[in-house]
Amino acid sequence: MKNLLIGTALIVSSAMGVTACSSVNAATDTKPNAKAPVVQKGEARHHDRVGRGNPNKKPFAELNLTADQEAKIKAIMQKNHDGRNQNFEAMKNERQAMQSQVQSLANSPTLNNAELNRLANLEAEKTRQRFINRVQSEREIAQVLTPEQRQKLAAMKADRQNKRADHFQNRAKNSGKDHPRFAPKPAPQY
To answer: Residue 188 gets which letter from DSSP?
Structure first.
C-alpha cells in the first residue's frame, strides 16, 4: 500500500511538473516576434502571385485586356498547358531513364565519352525545344496584344528581371557570398 501511495505521488508530481514547464514555455513562446512582418488584411504578400496561392490575380491584369483578348490568350495558354501535360508520364519515364544513365556513367571506372556526348546532345535538344515552344507562345500572345500593351508587357518583364537581379544581389550581400551568379550584369550593347 505504501508503494502504491508513493508511486501515485510521484506520477502526480511528475504530471504537475510537466504541466508547469509547458505552461511556462507556452507563456514565453507567445510573445510577438520582432522580426516577423505584420501583414494587414488585403496587403500583398510574397506568395500573392499567379500560381502562388492567389487564384484571383490574373497574369495580364495590368494590361487592361478586352474580353476577346483574354479569351484568346487563355486559349493559347491552355493549348500549351495541354501539350505539356499530354506526355507527362512519358517525359517522367524518360527523365528517370536519363538519370539512371547519368548515374551509371558517374559510377563507371572509365568515362565513356561517346555516351556522355550522346546524353549531352539529348539534353541540349530538350532545352532547344523548350526554348522554341516558349518563344512561339510569347509570339502568339504578342499578336493578340495592341502595340501599347506590348510595350507595357515588355516594361513589366524588364521590371520583374530587375527585381529578380536585385533580390539575388541583396542575397549575396547579406550572405557574404561572392558568387559570380550574384554579380551585376553589364548593360547590353546595341
So the answer is: P
